[in-house]
Write a structure and sequence with these properties.
The protein is mainly alpha-helical and 103 residues long. It has 7 helices and no strands.
Length: 103
């Protein structure tokens, strides 16, 4: 597995070659993004879309579910929504609570 410094050096070398051969500035994404970054982005997006861990694991080609969790970290906005949904004041007028209260 290449070291992070080697990956940066490879991307820099590729970006410089791009500029030399095409005579134009290298796009930011070509210089800074890796294909691997797109895997993480995909994992986070399918998790946010509500796909199961099993489906994400299959789509990412993982045998180990722990790796899938690493690739599909939850977005902080989602965690905030989940927290808000369980800390809202309870309405005692809900049909469920009325039925339980009548027993």
């Amino acid at each position: 597995m290449p070291r992070h410094d080697d990956e940066l050096e490879d991307r820099e070398r590729a970006a410089n070659r791009y500029e030399e051969e095409l005579g134009a500035p290298c796009p930011w994404g070509f210089r800074h993004l890796r294909i691997h970054d797109l895997r993480h982005n995909f994992g986070r997006r399918v998790r946010a879309a509500g796909w199961s861990n099993e489906d994400r694991k299959d789509l990412l080609g993982h045998k180990n579910g722990e790796i899938t969790t690493h690739y599909s970290r939850v977005e902080i906005d989602h965690l905030s929504e989940v927290e808000a949904s369980i800390t809202r004041p309870i309405s005692y007028n809900s049909p469920t609570l009325r039925a339980v209260g009548n027993v």
